[in-house]
């Protein structure tokens, strides 16, 4: 209980709190600070030092009450120490009470683990009567050691602590230096502090109220469920932003209820709604679990990788994407309209003429609102800024249809607000001076009750009051590069706020949830100047608070009961708790299995059925663990002590057979790399462990083949080759010679030429003296073929070695032994071979060739790159997988894919009309078009020129290709060139890319009719369309119609647009001319957006030119005003811009080779990266 052995001296640099409170860590800015507004020559006067016996003055000076805490009780107690040197090593002062708790001073005259110092502590005074286990008291205290004869001589220390049963004392190990306090003169006085072995200790204690229950808590063994009834979410790395959003949505009861209504009871429904099902599971676990819940399953369902897990994403974008996905999953269910009913409001964008009766407006829905923080002091100011009316007048008049240019009012007004209002506060903004995103830490107030009525349109429906109660405050602490997210949420209508900080949930006061998250400057100190706070994540000091609200959740007051229903009305679907409980039972079983793993072993069992289902080399594929693969071995986890007899009985029960009708065979690894049966396992009393040690290799596991016998004539089971002696070790070399009379077990496989399959058909027993041709009658009988069918027989010696057998040789002469495999096929004459080729051009005709195919077989998935010219009957058939040989040529590849597509398409697909593209190994997107060159094989296509087996990682996926069905053959396509055109239908604000195929020998005149067909362009505008090339974001040249197609540079971008009317009037004699224009940010090398061509008028003042430019680029108002214009000499990327003023004349400043630059921020910056990094599949 006592913290005796630890160093507890507290000084000005000491901070004993382990709980990070972002509103604290406050330092004082002295008058020497550069930010001080006080004159250094006039420092504030130092207050007089109080006397030790003036208790109120001492308390006011050194232990002032904090406005952040409410005092429960205070006490001052004085203890006179006598006979200092004769006191015990550990001495307790008298017990006194404060706030109903006993207290006392703990004193070490000779020091506690610090012999040069004296030690004083404050401790709870229960003594031998221990307090309750959950007892605690939060106290601010000060200990003062003084000379009772001279109260001006003293030393004091202050601290605060949460006193508990485990930490019952707290104080100062190095309270005072022993030599100093006994010295004849203490601190300039003419007498010692400890005089005549006497001194006085005064304890000042202030016990504080703890409304949250976690004041100064160290959170060791803290139980969120026990303390609050709720649990948190574990942080995966940088997912605190996700956790705060999920907790907000979870505690919006109507949202949780709607998520539970998404159907996920069947496997198909769960597959179609992976993310919704994962969210259901997460919500249920938040309800039912006793500890913090992981979000890993949810982020996995989103398709996120470690990159997204360790990068903080935009909360607003995440919320919108999640809502969109959930709304899709809710279609057709009882929750179909739940999300729009909760989160969707309507706003109207309008343009209303002042002097004529004309208004243009557009109403659109919104799911959340982004409010400006910069320049606004409160939510009310942000809303008023949002609906601020702009007057269009003077040069900026509005062109009203039928009325010409008119003065007008432009703005946005709200037609309705949703029942759950999400306000995204724009705490992060782009700083043009720093060229970076920065966090806005300005003070921004938000109310507990918000009235949105003043922001509604006059004609809006006001039947339901727009009074909102604050439900949640999502907070960001830190800056752009380092920070943390957490949330203050109110689970019930009239309840308290709770702080949800990843895996920890604690109670919170209204001040902590609201006032402490306004942001802004720390409170000033009249004596020592302004205060600074330390960012707990960057460790930097600032005068502004780094913790502030970035998202607010308000709920309409009249809908509180519906949006926050009682807990018993938010029950999960019935199947969910059952399934999760089953998973927990299974996880517990697996845990128990791991603990008992040393008692069990895996036995791999192959049967007659698995052999007949197998379509590969050897007996079966022993490494397959697929539950759907009928040829995969059955894997049994059995006791190592199980006997062979019990094992045989177990297998019989599994196969629903008589134990006498089956017998296990030992499978051994032969020297040639095959795995074959070696001999039966008849030793009934031998354990599985003994059999495995004796007959199998450790690396491959214990493998068994189960042979099934047929009843004899007398109704009993007999085995043709009973084992009469026990071999001492397994036959690893495959050299055991059969006797001339003992039958051998031989496995048969059938190669079906027409179906191009190889399957096991069972086994037969043959005598070593039988000839190879003696197998024919048994094969014909097994297959049900008529007598006289000619067969070709092959021995499968190993995977890469298949040899045709000679019919007249004996099996012994052919070196056949137990467990060997003989493959047979129908013999094909010339006509039969031609017939097969006509039906299946890619078919192989001999078993030997088919074995070569199997060895080099790869399964390749084909996905359509484009659906043009594709006419499959079922969309699910567009993607498919087929087996190919690594040796297959490009022609064979095209033939096999064409065969597959012909089967599922309405029209036959020609191999010559197929084109293939490799897939990028990282993104899965199309990479490189495969060219049908001589020597091209599947191996070189999938693995590159070096082929498989090398240590490097191929740049393309090795198991998938994209395909296209072309309008023409590849040979014809080689005579054409793909020209990429970007059509600009609306100035430069909209881009539509098209690819057109043009003969290489043609001129550019043939591009226009092809573009017309692709873009559905009307005939009347064809004469006014022009094409121009651009490079590095700048116009390169206008393309004349006679430009040869073959001369086009594929690295240049070609734009097509309708020539503006003002340019159509230009003549060769006119002094007006066309100039090239481009957009850049800060410097010409940072180009962006679409470059364009503009008509420059001779002698025109630039203020008038800007009006035409505004119309040309489609940007007006404030957006256009932010653009700066410059002459860029020669259009060079690193040329210094020459800025243009309104009174300048552009034609005087712009040379023949110069470009006009528009300096503005890149509004599409990082859009692609953001899309890549934040997505929910």
Automatic annotation (TrEMBL):
Top-level taxon of origin: Eukaryota
Entry GO CC: cytosol; nucleus
Top EC category: hydrolase
GO biological process: protein deubiquitination; proteolysis; regulation of protein stability
Localization (cell): Nucleus
Signal sequence annotation: none
Pfam families xrefs: MATH_2 (PF22486), UCH (PF00443), USP7_C2 (PF14533), USP7_ICP0_bdg (PF12436)
Catalysis performed (reactions): Thiol-dependent hydrolysis of ester, thioester, amide, peptide and isopeptide bonds formed by the C-terminal Gly of ubiquitin (a 76-residue protein attached to proteins as an intracellular targeting signal)
Record key words, sorted: Hydrolase, Nucleus, Protease, Thiol protease, Ubl conjugation pathway
Residue ranges constituting the USP domain according to the UniProt record: 231-557
Single GO term (MF): cysteine-type deubiquitinase activity
Domain MATH: 74-205
Protein name: ubiquitinyl hydrolase 1
Organism: Cryoendolithus antarcticus
């Amino acid at each position: 209980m006592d913290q005796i052995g630890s160093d507890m001296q507290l000084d000005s640099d000491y901070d004993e709190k382990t709980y990070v409170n972002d509103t604290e860590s406050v330092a004082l800015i002295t008058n020497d600070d550069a930010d001080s507004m006080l004159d250094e020559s006039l420092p504030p006067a130092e207050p007089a030092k109080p006397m030790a016996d003036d208790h109120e003055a001492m308390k006011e000076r050194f232990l002032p009450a904090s406005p952040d805490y409410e005092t429960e009780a205070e006490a001052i107690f004085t203890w006179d120490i006598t006979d200092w040197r004769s006191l015990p090593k550990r001495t307790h002062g008298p017990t006194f009470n404060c706030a109903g708790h006993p207290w006392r001073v703990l004193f070490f005259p000779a020091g506690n683990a610090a012999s040069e110092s004296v030690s004083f502590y404050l401790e709870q005074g229960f003594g031998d009567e221990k307090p309750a286990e959950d007892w605690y008291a939060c106290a601010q205290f000060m200990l003062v050691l003084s000379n009772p004869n001279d109260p001006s001589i003293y030393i004091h220390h202050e601290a605060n602590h949460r006193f508990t049963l485990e930490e019952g004392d707290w104080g100062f190990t190095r309270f005072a230096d022993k030599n100093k306090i006994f010295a004849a003169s203490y601190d300039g006085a003419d007498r010692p502090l400890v005089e005549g072995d006497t001194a006085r200790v005064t304890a000042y204690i202030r016990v504080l109220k703890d409304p949250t229950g976690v004041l100064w808590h160290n959170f060791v063994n803290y139980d969120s469920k026990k303390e609050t009834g709720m649990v948190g979410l574990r942080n995966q790395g940088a997912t605190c932003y996700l956790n705060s959003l999920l907790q907000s949505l979870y505690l919006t009861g109507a949202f949780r209820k709607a998520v539970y209504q998404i159907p996920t009871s069947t496997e198909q429904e769960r597959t179609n709604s992976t993310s919704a099902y994962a969210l259901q599971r997460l919500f249920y676990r938040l309800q039912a679990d006793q500890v913090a819940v992981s979000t890993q399953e949810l982020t996995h369902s989103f398709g996120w990788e470690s990159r997204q897990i360790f990068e903080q994403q935009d909360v607003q974008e995440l919320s919108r994407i999640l809502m969109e996905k959930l709304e899709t999953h809710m279609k057709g269910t009882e929750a179909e309209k739940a999300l729009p009913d909760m989160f969707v409001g309507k706003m109207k964008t309008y343009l209303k003429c002042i002097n004529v009766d004309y208004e243009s407006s557009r109403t659109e829905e919104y799911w959340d609102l982004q409010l400006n923080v910069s320049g606004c002091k409160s939510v009310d100011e942000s809303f008023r800024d949002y609906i601020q009316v702009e007057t269009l007048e003077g040069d900026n008049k509005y062109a009203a249809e039928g009325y010409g240019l008119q003065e007008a009012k432009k703005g946005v007004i709200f037609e309705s607000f949703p029942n759950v209002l999400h306000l995204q506060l724009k705490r992060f903004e782009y700083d043009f001076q720093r060229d970076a995103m920065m966090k806005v830490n300005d003070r921004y107030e938000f109310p507990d009750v918000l009235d949105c009525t003043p922001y509604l349109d006059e004609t809006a429906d006001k039947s339901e009051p727009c009074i909102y109660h604050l439900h949640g405050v999502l907070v960001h602490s830190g800056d752009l590069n380092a920070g943390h997210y957490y949330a203050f949420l109110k689970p019930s209508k009239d309840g308290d706020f709770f702080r949800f900080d990843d895996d920890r949930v604690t109670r919170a006061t209204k001040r902590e949830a609201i006032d402490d998250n306004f942001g802004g400057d720390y409170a000033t100190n009249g004596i020592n100047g302004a205060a600074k706070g330390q960012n707990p994540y960057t460790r930097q000091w600032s005068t502004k608070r780094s913790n502030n609200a970035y998202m607010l959740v308000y709920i309409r007051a009249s809908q509180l009961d519906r949006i926050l229903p009682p807990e018993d009305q938010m029950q999960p679907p019935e199947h969910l708790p059952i399934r999760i409980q089953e998973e927990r039972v299974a996880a517990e079983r697996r845990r128990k299995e791991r603990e008992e793993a040393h008692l069990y072993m895996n036995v791999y069992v192959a049967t007659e059925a698995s052999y007949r289902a197998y379509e590969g080399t050897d007996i079966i594929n022993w490494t397959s663990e697929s539950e759907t693969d009928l040829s995969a071995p059955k894997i049994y986890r059995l006791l190592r002590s199980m006997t062979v007899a019990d094992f045989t009985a177990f297998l019989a029960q599994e196969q629903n057979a008589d134990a006498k009708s089956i017998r296990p065979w030992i499978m051994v690894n032969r020297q040639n790399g095959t795995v074959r049966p070696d001999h039966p396992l008849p030793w009934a009393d031998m354990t599985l462990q003994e059999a495995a040690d004796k007959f199998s290799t450790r690396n491959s596991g214990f493998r068994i083949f189960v042979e099934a016998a047929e009843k004899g004539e007398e109704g009993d089971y007999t085995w043709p080759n009973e084992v009469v002696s026990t071999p001492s070790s397994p036959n690893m070399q495959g050299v055991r010679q059969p006797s001339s009379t003992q039958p051998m077990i031989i496995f048969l496989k059938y190669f079906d030429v027409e179906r191009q399959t190889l399957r096991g058909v069972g086994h037969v027993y043959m005598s070593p003296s039988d000839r190879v041709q003696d197998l024919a009658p048994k094969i014909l009988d097994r297959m049900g073929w008529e007598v006289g069918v000619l067969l070709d027989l092959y021995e499968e010696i190993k995977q890469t070695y298949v040899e045709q057998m000679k019919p007249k040789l004996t099996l012994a002469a052919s070196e056949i032994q137990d467990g060997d495999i003989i493959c047979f096929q129908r013999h094909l004459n010339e006509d039969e071979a031609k017939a097969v080729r006509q039906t299946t051009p890619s078919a192989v005709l001999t078993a030997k060739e088919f074995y070569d195919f199997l060895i080099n077989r790869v399964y390749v998935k084909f996905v359509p790159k484009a659906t043009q010219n594709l006419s499959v009957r079922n969309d699910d058939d567009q993607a498919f997988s087929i087996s190919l040989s690594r040796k297959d040529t490009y022609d064979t590849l095209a033939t096999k894919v064409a065969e597959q597509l012909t089967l599922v398409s309405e029209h036959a697909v020609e191999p010559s009309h197929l084109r293939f593209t490799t897939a990028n190994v990282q993104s899965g997107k199309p990479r490189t078009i495969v060219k049908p060159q001589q020597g091209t094989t599947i191996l070189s296509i999938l693995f590159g020129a070096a082929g498989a087996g090398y240590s490097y990682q191929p740049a393309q996926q090795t198991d998938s290709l994209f395909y296209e069905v072309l309008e023409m053959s590849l040979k014809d396509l080689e005579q054409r060139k793909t020209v990429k055109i970007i059509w600009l239908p609306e100035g430069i604000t909209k881009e539509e890319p098209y690819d057109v195929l043009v003969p290489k020998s043609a001129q550019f005149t043939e591009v226009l009719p092809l573009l017309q067909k692709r873009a559905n362009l009307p005939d009347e505008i064809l004469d006014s369309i022009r094409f121009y090339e651009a490079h590095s974001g700048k116009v390169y040249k206008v393309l004349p119609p006679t430009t040869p197609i073959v001369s086009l540079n594929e690295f240049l971008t070609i734009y097509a647009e309708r020539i503006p009317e003002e340019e159509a009037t230009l003549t060769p004699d006119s002094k007006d001319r066309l100039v090239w224009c481009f957009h850049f940010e800060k410097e010409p090398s940072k180009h962006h957006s679409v470059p364009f061509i503009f008509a420059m008028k001779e002698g025109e003042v630039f203020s008038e030119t800007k009006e035409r430019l505004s119309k040309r680029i489609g940007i007006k108002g404030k957006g256009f005003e932010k653009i700066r214009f410059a002459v860029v000499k020669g259009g060079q990327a690193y040329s210094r811009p020459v800025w243009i003023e309104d009174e300048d004349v552009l034609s005087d400043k712009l040379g023949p080779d110069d470009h006009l630059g528009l300096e503005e921020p890149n509004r599409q910056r990082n859009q692609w990266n953001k899309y890549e990094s934040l997505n929910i599949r």
